Amino acid sequence: MSTKNEEMALDAESIIKLISDMQPQAQNLFQSVLKDVLDRGNELSEVTVEELAKKYAAKALKLVG
Amino acid sequence: MRFVRMELNNWRSFLGLHQIEFAGWDSCNVTVLVGQNGAGKTALLNAFTWVLFGETTAGFRRPDDLFNHTALSLIKVGTVDKMFVKICFDHEGEQYVVTRSISAERAHNHEPPTVGPTKFSATVRNKTGVTEAVDQEKINAVLPPGLHPFFFFPAENIGKDIDQNDAASIRASMSRAIDVLLDIERYDNALKIISKTLTKHLKTPKNTPKDATIMAAEEEMNDARERWESTEQRKKKLPGIIEKAQRAVDKLNQALEESDAHRGAVEEMNKVKDEIYRENDNIERIRDGQVLAINSACGIVFGKEIFVDAKAALDVAHKEGKIPPKVSSGLLDELIDVRQKCICGRELGKCELGELKSLRSITLEDSIAEIASDLRGRLPLLIETDDGSVDKSVANEILELDKEANDAERRLLALKQRLKKLIDDQPEISHGDPGKTREAWQQQEKRLLRLQEELTDISKELPDLELAKRNAEKKYGAALNRQTKTKAIGEARGLLTSVEETLSKIQEIVRTCARKDVERAMNDFYTPLLLKNYCVRLTDDFRYEIVDESTSRTVGASSSEVALATFAFVGAIAALMPSYARLERLLPAGDGKSVGSLRADKANAYPVVLDAPYSPFGKEYGDQFSKVLPDLLPQSVLIVREDQLEYINSMIDDTRVGSAYVLQLQTGSAESKELVWQNKKYGYVINIEGQVASHTKITPLPVG
């Protein structure tokens, strides 16, 4: 059985750089929205999308306010 | 991830308890399960998907009929039996035990048993030896449900699909699998939320005031404030100025009184002035009367009930002796404030003072009590107006008062004109410096008149100026608010847009890189399996092509070669799953730094269960598949027909098979057969077509 380790094309560093290039408030929103989606599972209903959209409008305004 | 053991109890054709130990350590990593058609091979494949996800594969017949029929029929009245599948597996140093079960109970002899709902339970023993219960989500996080068609792969139909030129559906399911592998849907959902936020809840407001508009509103507000403030200041100063002017006039009057000719005029002027004052008072009185009359009329029309309520309240107050007050509030205040001695001459003590204060707190002010008493007397007249309409006499009174006020104002105007004329017509004074004194007096009188008129005008103008100031402030505030809100929305939109762009870029990176990674991983599997110099090329939309490496041209591959490409894809998913799962778990938590470089670690690839893997191949590729499979995956479970055993022999010879079982049918309505395993014969039976379903026994076969 082969146990060869190969470097993959998918590079976490490039993704991390994209995230760290965002403003801190945007990073906050980014992590929060991905976590919300993760917590709720991928089958989001329209009601959930609406509820989260409202939440992020308020959150973004609070972050800039 | 490694499968360790599976237990089946009354699962489909498997009557009673059966156990399978999986190979999967070191090089001896293949488990073989042999069975004829109808023996339960597909049921065994579905035991994996059912216990882990509560689902069955697409081609599984009667998916709701899982409880072994013989076991059900053997349940006695008042007893319970259970069907369950239990699987134990290791993952990242933790030991998982997942069980899904259904209970059945017979209540009456003549009725079939009642089958209960499906129950799920799972535990994890962590690296420190602590065991805890976990839910389905935890299992899904280890092995995404969307990928189970690949990890538990019914290979029997591959060839058929390819023969039917159904490569499009295979490609579509591969594309879906990659989406699941990369959790692309999470980015899609996050983007959907951000997009809805931007388009619905954070729209840029229309008609946002521009800076010039704000500045104009601010200027207008400052002007209005300035006008009001200067007028207000002037109003405050005018009485003092008027007083000074009056004193100057009085002084000049005194000087001029020496002149007889002037004295008469001054006397007349003073009379006129007195009349002016009286007329002013008269007008004020008339207007007050008008207000009272109008209030009274309004009260009749709009507020009769209020009067009734007011009278009731006043009646209560009267009954309690508060109007007029039994005790004078003024006297009490005086006693409390100056601590006077009481009538008997003794000084008030603390206790008495406290009582006085307590009494004062419930005593109405004398003046309030007087007004209340007066009001109580007048209210019945208002209430008793029978039809609620304004009494004609009240209406007439209002009109008459208005006429009277107008007449008074006309008289006032005439008086003022007369006074002005008297001042202008003053004769020259004959002694001293009469011309100069008279001129000074005339000027002072005129000035006084102007100042008084100015005060009247200002008093009239001031409420309008104040209103204009408030409106200008309101207008500026609203414009500023709108602009501030727009600015905040713009900044919030900027943040969300940058999140949207980052999500899209990450999605793009993940897709592009995943295409390369999947292509390479597929070729890692495909190249050793193929006997030709072919490789797999993945297009941007994850459609795969089989390419001749020497010419880089697409070739018309055989169905076996296409089937092998599908196996290569299954292997690629299994190999990439650990790394991608790690990345996906860590990024949203903001812990991306601990991910670092990702490596395709075949040693930690996921296990794959293949049902009838040799069906799509001819002999040549079947042998090759057996030869290389143990090296490609760290653990594989092969469920095969007896006639496919010839492909297993090379793996047995190479000691790659660590565990083997035969699925034996156990009833009389079956045909006896013999199985040759490592040159020895094993008896077993197969079901006769059209007969009642038999049950199956899982018997271990010797390995090594």
- Give the strand order of the largest sheet of chain B, numbering strands 1, 2, ... along the chain: 2-1-4-5-6-7
Relative helix content of chain B: 55-70%
Shape of chain A: flat
Please state roughly what percent of the residues of chain B sit in beta strands, choosing from under 5%, 5-15%, 15-25%, 25-35%, 35-45% or over 45%: 15-25%
Q: What radius of gyration of chain A results from the CA coordinates? A: 17 Å
CATH superfamily of the domain at 2-143 and 606-701 in chain B: P-loop containing nucleotide triphosphate hydrolases
Describe the model.
The complex is a heterodimer of chains A (65) and B (704). Chain A has helices at residues 12-21, 24-40, 46-64; one strand at residues 5-11. Chain A has 65 residues and is mainly α. In chain A, helix 2 (24-40) packs antiparallel against helix 3 (46-64). The N and C termini of chain A lie far apart (58 Å). With 704 residues, chain B is of the alpha+beta class. In chain B, helix 8 (211-256) packs antiparallel against helix 15 (434-529). Chain B is elongated and about 160 Å long. Mean pLDDT of chain B is 82; it is low at 159-165. The chains are: A mainly alpha (65), B alpha+beta (704). The interface between A and B is large, with 48 and 61 residues. Strand 1 (5-11) of chain A pairs antiparallel with strand 12 of chain B, so a sheet runs across the interface.
Quick take:
The complex is a heterodimer of chains A (65) and B (704). Chain A has three helices and one strand.
What are the main properties of this structure?
heterodimer, A: about 60 residues, B: about 700 residues, alpha+beta, Rossmann fold, six-stranded antiparallel beta sheet, six-stranded mixed beta sheet, 18 helices, about 55% helix
